[in-house]
Amino acid sequence: MDDDFKEAVKFHGHICPGLAIGYRVAKYAKEHYPRSEDEELVAIAENKSCSVDAIQALLGCTFGKGNLVCNDFGKQVFTIYSREKGKALRIYFKGEVLEGMDRLRQKAAEGTLSTEEKRDLEAMRDKLIQKILRAPDDEILSVTEVSIPAPEKARVYPSLKCQQCGEAFMEIMGRTAGGKVVCQECYEKMVG
Question: What pTM, to 2 d.p., does this model score?
Answer without folding.
Answer: 0.83
